[in-house]
Write a structure and sequence with these properties.
Elements: H1 2-9, H2 26-39, H3 41-47, E1 58-61, E2 66-68, E3 82-85, H4 88-93, E4 97-98, H5 109-126, H6 132-139, H7 143-154, H8 158-176, H9 181-187, H10 193-204, H11 208-212, E5 219-227, E6 230-236, E7 241-247, H12 250-260, E8 265-268, H13 273-285, H14 301-311, E9 319-320, H15 321-327, H16 334-343, E10 355-356, H17 369-392
Parallel strand pairs: 2-4, 5-8, 9-10
Antiparallel strand pairs: 1-2, 1-3, 5-6, 6-7
């Protein structure tokens, strides 16, 4: 008895008798796995059959024993049966075989198109006046097919890409060459100097002679004020508003403006400038009212297309990066769309704060996610205020 008592009450023995745990049901396990899959951002790409995600991961299906690329056209599997893999080798090591429909081991169509478009870009960069038909014939493609895949990959048409190359060449010639402005224009591939001068302000942000001088003759007036979102810097060139910057440190905003217009003459706003500042601040406080002021928007052809699409989003509404990419005809250019949003220097006027992730979550914002959240809440509340008043009445 003493031996038994010693065993029962020995310090080394557990003080409580552990009860057997109830096994988790198969349904509970499936629900748990489904929740894990649905919380993974890669699941959204599978549901959307995103070709842009091809090559970044693969997924396998437990019930069929195959693995696929994200864009596979097969019926979307149940989330509890899905597992993700970083490579084909990893999926095969786990016992899965390649899908015969999407053939995940082969180069994707988008990669093949990218190679073709790269070849087309090299031709357009080397030759000034090649037409779409001539370009397509040299590559063994139809004009319509080349036009479609070129826009899908680059976000630009071949014509717009060629124009962007000419613009880059003329910028380089004006800053580096000792030739005249006219020689620089023709040397860059423009067929007519008059056609270039029609667009010179949009291409260079100023006249060619002023650009050649380093922009030193350009004068930009600016002022720093306070709004509910913190410090705000408003700058105006001769063409229109060229910067609306938000932040916490006014000095940092001024340095940002100096970096953007390094060769320009920055002049503090006078008393007459205060009325413009007041209009911009009022717009930032209530974006739904609109801003009836000209904008001096300087950016690449692709950036300007993105910014134009952003300005079409109504106050109180949002769009995803994928939706913006689709609207400008470049459904695979989501990352480039995000970069264009980050390059925007006209806060609220070009409403990049209205772009969110595909799941509705807030992503990065140049002037801080909290400001982005505040702007969206403010616009949403303003949109629903008339409804609230009608109900109260």
């Amino acid at each position: 008895m003493q031996a038994i008592a010693h065993l029962l009450f020995s310090p080394s023995s557990p003080s409580k008798v552990s009860m057997p745990t109830r096994p988790v049901s198969r349904a509970a396990q499936a629900a748990q796995q489904a929740a894990i899959t649905q919380a993974d951002p890669r699941w959204a790409a599978v549901q959307a059959r995103s070709a842009a995600a091809d090559g970044s991961f693969w997924y396998s299906v437990q019930t069929t024993g195959v693995y696929c690329r994200p864009s596979c056209a097969a019926r979307t599997p149940r989330p509890e049966n899905v597992r993700f893999h970083v490579s084909c080798a990893q999926a095969e090591a786990a016992g899965f075989r390649p899908c015969q429909r999407c053939k995940p081991q082969q180069s994707s169509a988008i990669a093949h198109h990218a190679a073709q478009v790269t070849q087309a870009c090299r031709i357009l960069e080397a030759e000034d006046s090649v037409t779409l038909d001539a370009l397509a014939a040299r590559m063994g493609l139809s004009s319509s097919h080349l036009h479609r895949i070129f826009k899908q990959v680059t976000g630009l048409t071949p014509k717009a890409y060629a124009a962007a190359q000419r613009e880059q060449r003329v910028r380089s010639a004006l800053t580096q060459s000792g030739d005249s402005v006219t020689d620089a224009i023709y040397g860059a591939g423009y067929q007519s100097s008059s056609r270039f001068y029609e667009r010179s302000t949009q291409v260079l942000g100023m006249t060619p002679s002023r650009y050649r001088a380093g922009g030193t003759a350009q004068q930009i007036r600016f002022a720093v004020a306070q709004c509910s979102l913190g410090a705000i810097l408003i700058a105006h060139s001769g063409q229109g508003l060229c910067a609306i910057l938000l932040g916490d440190d006014p000095d940092a905003l001024v340095r940002d403006l100096q970096d953007r217009f390094a060769q320009a003459e920055l002049v503090g706003g006078d008393a007459g400038f205060e009325s413009l500042v007041a209009r911009v601040v009022a717009f930032v406080e209530a974006p739904g009212l609109g801003l009836d002021l000209p904008l001096d928007v300087q950016g690449t052809a692709f950036q300007q297309r993105v910014w134009q699409a952003l300005r079409a989003i109504p106050a109180g509404h949002t769009a995803s990066y994928a939706e913006i990419a689709a609207r400008i005809g470049a459904p695979t250019a989501m990352r480039a769309v995000a970069q264009a949003c980050g390059a925007n220097a006209l806060a609220v006027a070009i409403p990049c704060h209205r772009v969110v992730r595909s799941d509705g979550a807030l992503s990065g914002y140049r002037w801080g996610v909290e400001r982005k959240r505040a702007l969206l809440v403010r616009e949403s509340n303003a949109m629903h205020q008339p409804v609230a008043r009608e109900k109260a009445a």
